[in-house]
Prior knowledge:
The complex is a heterodimer of chains A (402) and B (435). By secondary structure, chain A is an alpha+beta fold. Chain A contains eleven helices and eight strands. Chain A folds into three domains: 7-122, Acyl-CoA dehydrogenase/oxidase, N-terminal domain (Butyryl-Coa Dehydrogenase, subunit A, domain 1, Orthogonal Bundle), CATH 1.10.540.10; 123-235, Butyryl-CoA Dehydrogenase, subunit A, domain 2, CATH 2.40.110; 246-394, Butyryl-CoA Dehydrogenase, subunit A, domain 3, CATH 1.20.140.10. Chain A has helices at residues 10-33, 41-55, 82-96, 98-102, 109-117, 120-126, 246-278, 296-323, 329-353, 365-375, 382-394, and strands at residues 131-134, 150-153, 157-168, 175-181, 191-197, 203-208, 219-230, 234-235. In chain A, the strands form two sheets. Chain A has a four-stranded mixed beta sheet with strand order 1-4-5-8, with helices on one face. A four-stranded antiparallel beta sheet of chain A has the order 2-3-7-6, with no helix packed on it. The longest helix of chain A is centred in the middle third of the chain and has 33 residues, at 246-278. Among the domains of chain B are: 2-43; 302-428, Up-down Bundle (Butyryl-CoA Dehydrogenase, subunit A, domain 3), CATH 1.20.140. In chain B, 51% of the residues lie in helices and 13% in strands. Chain B has helices at 2-18, 21-25, 28-42, 81-108, 113-120, 142-155, 157-176, 179-189, 302-334, 346-375, 380-409, 416-423, 425-428, and strands spanning 45-46, 197-200, 216-220, 223-233, 241-248, 251-258, 264-266, 280-290, 336-337, 340-341. In chain B, strands 1-7-8-4-3 form a five-stranded antiparallel beta sheet, with no helix packed on it. In chain B, strands 2-5-6 form a three-stranded mixed beta sheet. In chain B, a hairpin with a 2-residue loop joins strand 5 and strand 6 (251-258). In chain B, helix 6 runs parallel beside helix 9, helix 7 (157-176) runs antiparallel to helix 8 (179-189) and helix 7 (157-176) packs antiparallel against helix 9. Chain B is globular and about 75 Å long. The chains are: A alpha+beta (402), B alpha+beta (435). At the A-B interface, helix 8, helix 9 and helix 11 of A face helix 9, helix 10 and helix 11 of B.
Amino acid sequence: xxxxxxxxxxxxxxxxxxxxxxxxxxxxxxxxxxxxxxxxxxxxxxxxxxxxxxxxxxxxxxxxxxxxxxxxxxxxxxxxxxxxxxxxxxxxxxxxxxxxxxxxxxxxxxxxxxxxxxxxxxxxxxxxxxxxxxxxxxxxxxxxxxxxxxxxxxxxxxxxxxxxxxxxxxxxxxxxxxxxxxxxxxxxxxxxxxxxxxxxxxxxxxxxxxxxxxxxxxxxxxxxxxxxxxxxxxxxxxxxxxxxxxxxxxxxxxxxxxxxxxxxxxxxxxxxxxxxxxxxxxxxxxxxxxxxxxxxxxxxxxxxxxxxxxxxxxxxxxxxxxxxxxxxxxxxxxxxxxxxxxxxxxxxxxxxxxxxxxxxxxxxxxxxxxxxxxxxxxxxxxxxxxxxxxxxxxxxxxxxxx
Amino acid sequence: xxxxxxxxxxxxxxxxxxxxxxxxxxxxxxxxxxxxxxxxxxxxxxxxxxxxxxxxxxxxxxxxxxxxxxxxxxxxxxxxxxxxxxxxxxxxxxxxxxxxxxxxxxxxxxxxxxxxxxxxxxxxxxxxxxxxxxxxxxxxxxxxxxxxxxxxxxxxxxxxxxxxxxxxxxxxxxxxxxxxxxxxxxxxxxxxxxxxxxxxxxxxxxxxxxxxxxxxxxxxxxxxxxxxxxxxxxxxxxxxxxxxxxxxxxxxxxxxxxxxxxxxxxxxxxxxxxxxxxxxxxxxxxxxxxxxxxxxxxxxxxxxxxxxxxxxxxxxxxxxxxxxxxxxxxxxxxxxxxxxxxxxxxxxxxxxxxxxxxxxxxxxxxxxxxxxxxxxxxxxxxxxxxxxxxxxxxxxxxxxxxxxxxxxxxxxxxxxxxxxxxxxxxxxxxxxxxx
Lengths: 402, 435
C-alpha cells in the first residue's frame, strides 16, 4: 500500500501548474468578461502541449489521453498510467482556469470518445482533429437514452436530423461526435455516435449560450437537417446489439468522470488557497488543535481541506483502478459526485468567508464559485451519479430504481 | 474486579429500593441521587495487579522496527498476500465470534474472557513484539494493524477495543520504549497469557486537547508523581499495565504505570457506546513511578503517539461504517412499503449511496495517513484531516443507519442503534489505542 504520487508524474504536474499560473490565470478574468471571444492564447499553448504529449504519451494531459493503456499487454504489475497522469495534469490546469481548460483545442470530450472507441482508420482520420461532443437535446438532459436525433441508413451514408444543445466548444471544434439513434423504436441500444465535420451540409450553428460560469468555454446549440454523414464516420459497432450497445457508449464516461472530478478539485483548491491567503492575519492555522477547539473560521478551513483531500484521493484511486484495468464504474461515480459537491461547497463558502472582497471582480473567488456549479451538473449530475452508485450497491436495474 | 464490586453494591441498593422502605420513608429522590453518585465515584477500586514484570535483560539497546523493506514508488492500493491472509482470519473471527456476542458484550459492558482468549489465537500480539523479545515483528506495521482494527470493528467496535488495547501498548513500547523498558515489559506480550494493558490519554473535561493535559507529573527525587484523572480508559479495571499521558515541566510525557500501583484507582462511569471496551475513568492520586518509567527515548514524539491512537479510532470507525453499509443494503432491499422494496425510493437509495461515498472518503484519508506513518513520513497533518472528516462522517453514517431502519433501528433487536452509540466515540476519543 502506498498513497503517494510517484515521482515520475511530478514533472508533468509541475508543467501543468506552470501553465495554470503563467498562461491561464493572467487571462482568466479577461475571457470571463468577454464571453464567446476565442482565447487565442490557447493556440500557442496547445502546440506546446501537443509536443509534450507526443514526447511522452504516458505523461500527457487532456481528455484525449484517457482510456489509453488499456490495450497494452498486462504483465500483472501495478501501473500508474495515462488515466492518473491525465487526471493530475487536468487538476493543475483547472487550478488555473476550468473554462480555459475546457476550451483547449483537441482536448474535448469528443476526442476522449474517439480515443476510446475509434478503429485504426478513424484514429488516422480524426486523431489530429478537435472533436466536441453532442449528446444533450432540448428535451433530454440526464436521460441520454431518450435522445430524439435520428440517423437514417441510406446505403453509403447516414442522414442525421435533430437538434443538439450544450455542445462544449461546439463552434470552435473541427468536428462533433453526435449521438443519434438508428431507430427510435429500438430504445437505447440503437444509439450510436457519429463524427460530423463542420462544413457538412445540413449542419448549422443555432446559437451560443450565455452562462452563469465557465464563460471562456463556448457552449453551442447545433441543428442537423438532412445532414449526410459518411458510413465510415460511425464510431464502434454499426449493428444494433441488444446485449451491449448503450452500455458500451456509456463506458466512455467511466474514463471521463474522474477527469471532471479533477476539474472540480482544481477549482476548489484555487479557492481554498486564495481564501487561506486572504485570512492569513485572522487565523491561527495549525494541525495541533482538535477541530472543535479552533475558531469557527479555522474549523471551516480544516473541514474544507479534509473534504478536498478525501475527494482528491478518491479520484486518484478511481484513475488508478482504470490504469490497472479494474472495473471502476462505481468508484468513478463516487469520485465525481463527491468532488463536484465538495468543490461547489468550498468555492461558495470561500466567497462568503472573504466577504465583500470575495463577492466582486477584483478577486477570482466569485468566478470560481460560478464555474464550479457546472461541474456538479455535466458528465452526469450529482443525482445521476447517486443513482449509478445506488443501483450498483443495491443490485437494482434502472427500471426498479428510477 | 470493579464490575463485580459495583454489581454487588447495586444488588444491595436495588433490594433496598424494592423493599418499600424507601417509599415509606419518603427517601426515593435521595436514594436515586445516592445511586448516581455511588456508581459515579463511590466504588473506587484498586486496579489489577497480577504479575511482576521483570527485566529479561535481553536488550543492549532499544529495538526499533524499520519501515517495510520494499517501499513502492508507485501509488498502489493493493495489500500484501500476508496482509490478505491476516485479514481473512480476522474477518471470519469478527463475523463468527464478535458479531454474535456484540449485544451481550454491550449489555455487560465487558468483553468476555472467552472472547479475549479466542482473539489471542489470532496471534495479533506477536506482530507487535520484535523477534528478539519473543514476538514475530520484523518491520513496522501500522497498515496491518489498521486493517485488523477495521475488520475487528466490522464485527463489533467495543470488543475490538478490548482486543486491541493490549496490542496497542505493545506497539507503543516497541515504537517508543528504551532498551530497559522493552526488555522489562514486552516479552510478556508474546507469552501465552499476555497482560491486559491500556493507554490513558483523554481527560474528563470539555474541549479536551491532548496537547493541554491537566494530569500532571512532577519530579520527586528519583520518582515521578502523577496526579489527575483520565477518562475512557479501555480495560481500566483489569489492565496490568498502563501508558499514562501527563503534563511534565517540559511538556506532555507518557509514563508506564503498573496496575495496582498505590494511588491508581478506577471507578464506574459507563460510556454511551463502545461499552464492551471496558472503558472507565482512571484516577491518579500521587501515583509514584520510577524515573525510568517515562517514555523518554530520544526519538519519542508525543504528537505521533497521540496521532497513532487517533488513527486507530479512525480505522475502527471505518470498520463500523462498513458494517452499517453491509447491514442496511439487504434490509432496504427486503423491507417493503407501499407495495415495493423501500430501496426503490430515491430518498432511501440515495442515503445508501451517500453512506458508501462518505465511507470511502473516511477510508481513503485514514489509509493515506497510516501509510505515511508506516513509511516514516510526517503524518500529523494527514491525521488531523482524517480525524476532522472521519468523526463527522462516521456519526452521519451512524444516524443514517438507524434512520433507514426506522422504528426497528431504534430497538435493540437490530444492531444499528449500537453502531449509532459506538460512532459517537470517534468525536471524543483520544488515546486508548495505538497502531
